[in-house]
Amino acid sequence: RHTWTPALKAPEHGQPTTLIHVDLADGRCRTGGSIAAQVIGQVGATPADLDRPEALVGLFHAARILRDEQRVLAWHDISDGGLFITVLEMAFAGRAGVSLSLAPDVPLFESLFAEEPGGVLEVRSGDVEATLRTLRDQAVTARVLGTATTGDACIIQHGSEVVFSGSRAGLHRRWAETSYQMQALRDDPDCAREAFDSIEQADDPGIQPVLTFNPDHDITAPFVGSTTRPRVAILREQGVNGQLEMAAAFRAAGFDAVDVHMSDILRGHDDLSHYVGLAACGGFSYGDVLGAGGGWAAAIRFHPLARPAFARFFARPDTFSLGVCNGCQMLSQLADLIPGAEHWPRFHRNRSDQFEARVSQLEILESPSVLLSGMAGSRLPVAVAHGEGRVVHRSEESAAKALVAARYVTGTGAVATRYPANPNGSPEGQTAFTTTDGRATILMPHPERVFRSLTNSWVPADWPMDSGPWLRLFRNARAFVGEY
User: Which domains are assigned to the chain?
Assistant: First the structure.
């Protein structure tokens, strides 16, 4: 909803845009205490400060106006590293080039590296004068700093002299070098290297969603008039924390989402006979002490009430099941109770040896899954958050016969085999599986966290904000149930 991010939009717009320096220091460029001062051993210099607090107030007023007018494409505050690093970080995020023109009356070092309060705005070239006027009306000092381009070059001009010219990819590698060295010591070094090398992959455009269906089309519309909402059990165990998002997603699709704790089943208060759907949620059941999902699965497998209750539910032809993240790990260990799931894999420690929380891109594959019906061929961004998501098949036969429903892909649509596009090291990017009849589906990512587009870190501007593409998964469940 018109959120400002640091990612430059020039490549997205296909033409250069203008960068504006919002200067709350009114032209002062003090470097005392800055990162650059520490690097060169500078002492005794005056530090940056906000000498005119009303300028900060004015910036907030101007920002509100500019946001309402939708003039700003990107914004980044000036902090560690000063103006130069601020602009570069915007270029890195947007995979854009930049050309800066610095005033000749201010020394180059101070212009680039002073950490005075302020920021950088990206606007369309036709909006420059209106943006500057809005800022100046609020007593905020601002001037045109340069342009963002669709290329890779980063150029700095001081007065009439070009003082720097380099590639954005090369600068990005220099900027990420320290983090890479630390990551290589802490995590799997091969994964760290793959992530570091991906910076220079100019042919990878990043996340590029592709839709094979219309997210505005509500396939549940024929059932809106139903007097009773079908009930879905939102299943959780000690340590599970994804039940609220899951309930919200199913409710948005027309279900009555019922909170069902494992203790209800273990004590005989609930036997799952009153539900048409079951959703096992994400989190950390039993703190993953027995392996992710292991304790939760054992509580079902070896309990005299729980095991038959789940077996009866899975056997009913009118039911569907969804396992997400920890729920996916748990259901994979109940495969012998779920008809058609005998070739499901187990999920082991991520190849990076770290908990992976990031945005990844999935491709929905052709499969019997009733929850992914009509979505095949789509490539969608999705939230990922797990420490044990690497697919390990039980045998070569299972690997060949497992019904894969989704896989990680790169921005070009190729199967993601390298980190971080493949966040856990699963073979062929595999991350979702279904049964032979399609009634049970498990996946490691979290579609319930992003069923509304506005909860994504990023989506294309033309996507509907409330009913995002992932809502289709939950609407498919409602369509499967039909009249109720």
Answer: 10-186 (3.90.650.10), 221-481 (3.40.50.880)
